[in-house]
Amino acid sequence: MTRFSGGQLSPSPSSDSEEWQCMDEGTLKPSRSGAVCMTCHHFRYVVGKQCQTLLSCPIHQRLIPHGEHLNSKCHQWTIRRELEVGWAPEVA
C-alpha cells in the first residue's frame, strides 16, 4: 500500500519499527545545514518495549543510528509540512 504525500509516493510504514534493521553504511550523507534527518518530513521516533527511543525512517524502513539524525541526511530528504501549512493543521 502506498500513500501520496508532498508530491512523491512513499511506502506506508510497517507496523513495528522495532524489528527494522539499522541503516546501511552509505545511505546517510553528512550534512552541515538544517537539512538533516531530524528536520525531514519522514523522520519518526517511537519508544520501544525496553523504554529506549528508536529513531526511524519509514521511507527506508530502517532505524537511524543514534546521533546520525542530527548531522546526516539522505537523498529523499523533504522539508517538514508543518512549516508550509502551519503547526498541527489536523487539530484545527
Structural features, described:
Helix content is about 5%, strand content about 25%. A hairpin with a 4-residue loop joins β5 (about 55) and β6 (about 60-65). The strands form three sheets. A three-stranded antiparallel β-sheet has the order 4-5-6, with no helix packed on it. It has a two-stranded antiparallel sheet with strand order 1-2. It has a two-stranded antiparallel sheet with strand order 3-7. It starts with a strand and ends in a 7-residue tail after the last helix. The model is unreliable at about 1-15 (pLDDT under 50). The chain has one helix at about 80-85, and strands spanning about 1-5, 10, 30, 45, 55, 60-65, 70-75. It has about 90 residues and is mainly beta.
Using brief descriptors, characterize the structure shown.
92 residues; 5% helix; globular; mainly beta; 7 strands; disordered N terminus
Task: Show unreliable segments.
Answer: 1-13
Give the number of helices: 1
Tell me the total number of β-strands.
7
Task: Tell me, rounded to a whole number, the average pLDDT.
Answer: 80
Cα separation of the termini: 28 Å
What composes the largest sheet?
3 strands, antiparallel
In spatial order, strands of the major sheet run 4-5-6
The radius of gyration is 13 Å
Shape: globular
Query: What is the beta-strand fraction?
Result: 25-35%
Helix and strand run: EEEEEEEH
Output the structural class.
mainly beta
Helix content: under 10%
Per-chain topology:
Blueprint: E1 2-5, E2 8-11, E3 29-30, E4 44-47, E5 53-57, E6 62-63, E7 72-73, H1 81-85
